[in-house]
Amino acid sequence: MSTGAPDDVDPSQERLFGPGADRLLVDGRDVAPVHVARSRAEVRKGLLGTDRLVGALWLTRCPSVHMVGMRYPIDVAVLDRAGRVLLARSLRPGWGLTWPTPRRRDTVELPAGSLQVMGISVGTLLSVG
Predict the structure, then answer these.
(1) How far is 58 from 56, CA to CA, in rounded Å?
(2) Which of 8, 39, 99, 108 could make an S-S bridge to 77, C-beta 3.0–4.6 Å?
């Protein structure tokens, strides 16, 4: 799996996000550390200003995301209230985005390639453990 870090980033200067204190569960399986962003400020900032994500970022009450200002590609899973994946896709810096719809509630951001590695697709149940 790719680290998602831009090639021109000096490792000693790399700004990492994570790992979080909680665990991401995929259909009940523990797969990665996760940080749960609960405040409006945390959700608004997201991964902006970082060079790489370690684990996952769960954005509560955030039905859509954009990649404007992002430095690296990510995978995203958009969830309903129960944590069921409604949309799973890879997003590129500057171009990627997801649109809000009434059923969408939270978004989980992951390092690029994680959806496939972790077995996350539409219908998968994600939760925090």
Answers:
(1) 7
(2) 108
Longest dimension (CA), the chain: 43
CA distance 115 to 18: 18
Which CATH class for the 15-118 domain? mainly beta
pTM over 0.85: yes
Which of 68, 34, 77, 36 minimizes the C-alpha distance to 53?
Answer: 34
Please, how many CA atoms are within 13 Å of residue 107, restricted to the half-sphere of its CB? 25
Which tens digit of pLDDT belongs to each residue from 96-114?
899 999 999 999 999 999 9
Residue type at 92 in one-letter notation: R
Tell me the average pLDDT across 62-77. Answer: 94
Measured in Å, how far apart are the chain's first and last C-alpha atoms?
23
